[in-house]
Amino acid sequence: MSIHSYTFCPLGIHLEHCLVGPVVSALCVYSKDISISSSRFIERSAWRSFNVSKLEAFGNDISGRQNRRRVAFAASEGSTSGLDYGFSRKRKVVEHICLLKANRDLSAEEENDMLDYLYTSQYQMGGIVAISLGSLSDKNPDGYTHAVYMRFQRQEDLAKFYKNSFYLRVLKDHVIPHCHGLISVDYESEVQDDILHIFRKGEEFNYGVEFVLLVSVVETARGGPADDALATLAKLPMEFPSLIVQATQGSNFNTSDIEYTHGAVIRFRSIEAFKMFVGSSDYKDIWKSKFQPITQKSLAVHFSVDPVGTEIM
């Protein structure tokens, strides 16, 4: 199983400038304002890159699931994709992140089987309103190889999910035999109160890059400083609409695993948008000024997203 060689540290900072903790092998593990000066050059360049990449479509499927249909469309340059982040109503959602450490001898067939069963879990039980998953695009210090992201409407739905017999059987028969470690982070956040954004449906969410950030902040920073740092992430879709579709962030509420205190998931429009943003001075400044002073350790990973609604097990 191949993993790409270059590595992005949390918020685009090189590894030696970040506080990265040791490997975590746990079973299961909430924002003040900052102005981010987005460059018009970045915005226009991003849209040009976005248009080209979508017209070509993503020819490579990182997760190895080759039989999935690709979707192609182009967005108009200068568009903000019709999203109104400043004045729209908000709806609370619950985010679940699970990172897996697959065995080195995992075959392509076993990988597809594992990911397909995890993905189709949404059709076998209630509560899951959105899901994405895939093979991580880069190596990371903790050795995680795959990520699973799920969204629920309420914490009660997530609690039922953990105890669901079908899900437990998927873990027992199709995940645990192929993995030697996993970690989960759960948090509550807010999104726009409309069907497309709650359920992550439509052209905006058909494909792109899912960026996952996990951090553990020092005890004295929990509350004000941590909330302030998270608020910078919450504003990113409004500040960089041509790069980012949606961002959620929050404090880990799963008391069974407190290794990481906070988590965030950011959906980028394309791999080009992702690379452009994490390499920008704005993003690096966020990490240096808001996160680095209060962070004990961190983990940042990302994976490509396939078109939704086409998976067949």
From TrEMBL:
PANTHER family: EXPRESSED PROTEIN (PTHR33178:SF5), PTHR33178. This is Stress-response A/B barrel domain-containing protein. InterPro entries: Dabb, Dimeric_a/b-barrel, HS1/DABB1-like. The lineage of its organism: Eukaryota, Viridiplantae, Streptophyta, Embryophyta, Tracheophyta. Homodimer. Residues 94-187, 209-303 form the Stress-response A/B barrel domain. Gene3D superfamilies: 3.30.70.100. It comes from the Eukaryota. PROSITE patterns: S_R_A_B_BARREL.
